[in-house]
Amino acid sequence: MVAYPTEGVFGLGCDPQNAAAVLRVLAIKDRPVEKGLILIASDRAQLSGYVCPDPVMEQRIVPSWPGPVTWLLPAGPLARPWLTGGGGLLAVRVTDHPVAAALCRAFGAPIVSTSANLSKKRPAKSALAVRKLLRTRGLDYLVPGATGKQSGPTEIRDGRTGAVLRSGSARR
Predict the structure, then answer these.
(1) Which residues contact 38 (CB under 8 A, 6 or more apart)?
(2) Residue 172 counted as domain residue
(3) Burial of 71 (0-12, 13-18, 19+ CB in 10 A)
(4) Chain-centre distance of CA 143, in angstroms?
(5) pLDDT band at residue 104 under the 50/70/90 scheme
(6) How far apart are CA 45 and CA 50, in angstroms?
(7) Which domain range does residue 160 map to?
(8) Which of 40, 63, 151, 157 has the fewest CB atoms in 10 Å of its CB?
(9) In which band, very low, low, confident or very high, does the pLDDT at 172 lie, cut at 50, 70 and 90?
(10) What is the DSSP letter of 98?
Protein backbone atom coordinates (compact mmCIF):
# COMPACT_ATOMS: atom_id res chain seq x y z
CA MET A 1 0.00 0.00 0.00
CA VAL A 2 1.26 3.42 -0.98
CA ALA A 3 0.21 6.94 0.03
CA TYR A 4 0.61 9.72 -2.54
CA PRO A 5 -0.55 13.28 -3.22
CA THR A 6 -3.56 13.87 -5.45
CA GLU A 7 -5.49 16.93 -6.60
CA GLY A 8 -6.66 17.88 -3.10
CA VAL A 9 -5.70 15.29 -0.48
CA PHE A 10 -3.29 12.40 -0.02
CA GLY A 11 -4.58 9.10 -1.34
CA LEU A 12 -4.01 5.48 -0.42
CA GLY A 13 -3.55 3.14 -3.30
CA CYS A 14 -2.68 -0.33 -4.47
CA ASP A 15 -3.13 -2.71 -7.38
CA PRO A 16 -6.91 -2.88 -8.00
CA GLN A 17 -6.63 -6.50 -9.19
CA ASN A 18 -4.99 -7.64 -5.94
CA ALA A 19 -7.89 -8.48 -3.62
CA ALA A 20 -5.64 -8.89 -0.57
CA ALA A 21 -4.08 -5.45 -1.12
CA VAL A 22 -7.45 -3.76 -1.62
CA LEU A 23 -8.91 -5.45 1.46
CA ARG A 24 -5.84 -4.33 3.42
CA VAL A 25 -6.44 -0.70 2.37
CA LEU A 26 -10.08 -1.01 3.43
CA ALA A 27 -9.10 -2.55 6.78
CA ILE A 28 -6.54 0.17 7.50
CA LYS A 29 -9.19 2.82 6.80
CA ASP A 30 -11.94 0.89 8.59
CA ARG A 31 -14.01 1.33 5.43
CA PRO A 32 -16.67 -1.19 4.44
CA VAL A 33 -16.14 -2.91 1.07
CA GLU A 34 -19.77 -2.11 0.17
CA LYS A 35 -18.88 1.58 -0.26
CA GLY A 36 -16.70 0.85 -3.29
CA LEU A 37 -13.51 2.64 -4.26
CA ILE A 38 -12.13 5.04 -6.85
CA LEU A 39 -9.56 4.15 -9.48
CA ILE A 40 -7.26 6.80 -10.89
CA ALA A 41 -5.41 6.54 -14.19
CA SER A 42 -2.87 8.57 -16.12
CA ASP A 43 -4.96 8.33 -19.31
CA ARG A 44 -8.31 6.96 -20.50
CA ALA A 45 -6.71 3.89 -22.07
CA GLN A 46 -5.71 2.61 -18.62
CA LEU A 47 -9.40 2.40 -17.70
CA SER A 48 -10.25 0.09 -20.60
CA GLY A 49 -12.02 -2.97 -19.26
CA TYR A 50 -12.74 -1.34 -15.91
CA VAL A 51 -15.66 0.79 -17.15
CA CYS A 52 -18.04 0.72 -20.11
CA PRO A 53 -19.38 4.22 -20.77
CA ASP A 54 -21.74 4.70 -23.70
CA PRO A 55 -21.22 7.52 -26.25
CA VAL A 56 -23.47 9.96 -24.36
CA MET A 57 -21.48 9.40 -21.16
CA GLU A 58 -18.24 9.81 -23.12
CA GLN A 59 -19.41 13.26 -24.23
CA ARG A 60 -19.87 14.25 -20.56
CA ILE A 61 -16.63 12.73 -19.32
CA VAL A 62 -14.01 13.57 -21.93
CA PRO A 63 -14.00 17.37 -21.45
CA SER A 64 -13.32 16.97 -17.69
CA TRP A 65 -10.25 14.71 -18.06
CA PRO A 66 -7.54 14.85 -17.14
CA GLY A 67 -8.75 16.76 -14.13
CA PRO A 68 -10.28 16.66 -10.66
CA VAL A 69 -13.62 15.09 -11.61
CA THR A 70 -14.39 11.49 -10.67
CA TRP A 71 -17.13 9.76 -12.65
CA LEU A 72 -19.34 6.87 -11.54
CA LEU A 73 -19.66 4.66 -14.63
CA PRO A 74 -21.00 1.21 -15.57
CA ALA A 75 -18.47 -1.38 -14.44
CA GLY A 76 -16.57 -3.41 -17.02
CA PRO A 77 -15.26 -6.98 -16.75
CA LEU A 78 -12.09 -5.94 -14.86
CA ALA A 79 -14.08 -4.18 -12.12
CA ARG A 80 -13.97 -6.66 -9.27
CA PRO A 81 -16.60 -6.65 -6.46
CA TRP A 82 -14.03 -5.32 -3.97
CA LEU A 83 -13.79 -2.19 -6.19
CA THR A 84 -17.48 -1.67 -6.96
CA GLY A 85 -18.78 -2.59 -3.54
CA GLY A 86 -20.71 -5.37 -5.24
CA GLY A 87 -22.70 -2.98 -7.44
CA GLY A 88 -22.64 -2.39 -11.17
CA LEU A 89 -20.82 0.96 -11.09
CA LEU A 90 -17.21 2.00 -10.60
CA ALA A 91 -15.81 5.44 -9.74
CA VAL A 92 -12.88 6.46 -11.98
CA ARG A 93 -10.77 9.51 -12.74
CA VAL A 94 -8.00 10.43 -15.16
CA THR A 95 -5.89 12.49 -12.80
CA ASP A 96 -4.09 15.67 -13.75
CA HIS A 97 -1.92 15.59 -10.62
CA PRO A 98 1.66 15.06 -11.87
CA VAL A 99 2.75 12.74 -9.05
CA ALA A 100 -0.41 10.61 -9.07
CA ALA A 101 -0.33 10.37 -12.88
CA ALA A 102 3.36 9.40 -12.81
CA LEU A 103 2.57 6.67 -10.28
CA CYS A 104 -0.09 5.24 -12.62
CA ARG A 105 2.28 5.43 -15.60
CA ALA A 106 5.04 3.68 -13.64
CA PHE A 107 2.61 0.95 -12.55
CA GLY A 108 1.28 0.68 -16.10
CA ALA A 109 -2.35 0.56 -14.98
CA PRO A 110 -4.87 2.41 -12.86
CA ILE A 111 -4.51 2.29 -9.08
CA VAL A 112 -6.95 2.38 -6.21
CA SER A 113 -7.35 5.90 -4.89
CA THR A 114 -9.09 6.45 -1.59
CA SER A 115 -8.38 9.32 0.75
CA ALA A 116 -5.64 8.77 3.32
CA ASN A 117 -7.74 8.84 6.45
CA LEU A 118 -9.69 6.65 8.80
CA SER A 119 -13.33 6.22 7.81
CA LYS A 120 -15.42 9.33 8.59
CA LYS A 121 -12.32 11.37 9.56
CA ARG A 122 -10.71 14.25 7.68
CA PRO A 123 -8.33 13.23 4.88
CA ALA A 124 -4.62 13.89 5.25
CA LYS A 125 -3.41 16.86 3.21
CA SER A 126 0.33 16.47 3.75
CA ALA A 127 2.98 13.77 3.92
CA LEU A 128 3.51 14.59 7.61
CA ALA A 129 -0.18 14.10 8.35
CA VAL A 130 -0.09 10.73 6.55
CA ARG A 131 2.95 9.63 8.58
CA LYS A 132 1.27 10.59 11.86
CA LEU A 133 -2.01 8.93 10.93
CA LEU A 134 -0.74 5.71 9.37
CA ARG A 135 2.68 5.08 10.91
CA THR A 136 1.38 2.15 12.94
CA ARG A 137 -1.16 0.89 10.39
CA GLY A 138 1.11 -0.76 7.84
CA LEU A 139 1.80 1.84 5.19
CA ASP A 140 4.43 0.42 2.80
CA TYR A 141 5.56 3.59 1.07
CA LEU A 142 4.88 7.34 1.11
CA VAL A 143 5.41 9.18 -2.18
CA PRO A 144 6.59 12.72 -1.44
CA GLY A 145 4.93 15.74 -3.00
CA ALA A 146 2.33 18.42 -2.53
CA THR A 147 -1.38 18.13 -3.16
CA GLY A 148 -2.88 20.04 -6.08
CA LYS A 149 -5.24 22.98 -6.36
CA GLN A 150 -8.32 21.36 -4.83
CA SER A 151 -9.14 22.22 -1.22
CA GLY A 152 -10.44 18.70 -0.56
CA PRO A 153 -11.46 15.48 -2.29
CA THR A 154 -12.49 15.64 -5.95
CA GLU A 155 -15.98 16.12 -7.27
CA ILE A 156 -17.89 12.92 -8.02
CA ARG A 157 -20.49 12.86 -10.80
CA ASP A 158 -22.88 10.21 -12.07
CA GLY A 159 -21.86 9.39 -15.64
CA ARG A 160 -25.40 8.35 -16.55
CA THR A 161 -27.04 11.66 -15.57
CA GLY A 162 -24.24 14.15 -14.99
CA ALA A 163 -25.57 14.78 -11.47
CA VAL A 164 -23.05 15.92 -8.86
CA LEU A 165 -22.86 13.30 -6.08
CA ARG A 166 -20.05 15.02 -4.13
CA SER A 167 -18.92 18.60 -4.65
CA GLY A 168 -15.27 19.44 -5.10
CA SER A 169 -13.72 22.85 -4.70
CA ALA A 170 -10.59 24.63 -5.84
CA ARG A 171 -8.31 26.44 -3.42
CA ARG A 172 -8.65 30.19 -3.40
Answers:
(1) 70, 91, 92, 93, 112, 113, 114
(2) no
(3) buried
(4) 15
(5) very high
(6) 10
(7) 2-166
(8) 63
(9) very low
(10) H
Query: For residue 49, is it within any domain?
Result: yes
Cβ pair 166, 153 in contact under 8 A: yes
Q: Residues 6 or more apart from 123 whose CB is under 8 A from it? A: 9, 10, 115, 116, 117, 152, 153
Phi, psi of 112 (to 5 degrees): -60, 140
What is the domain-level CATH number for residue 142? Answer: 3.90.870.10
Residue 33 lies in a domain: yes
> How many domains does the structure of the chain reveal?
1
C-alpha 76/C-alpha 32 separation (Å) is 22
* pLDDT for res 91: 98
Spatial distance between the Cα atoms of 35 and 47, rounded to a whole number of angstroms: 20
d(CA 121, CA 53): 32
pLDDT value of residue 21: 96
Average pLDDT, the chain: 94
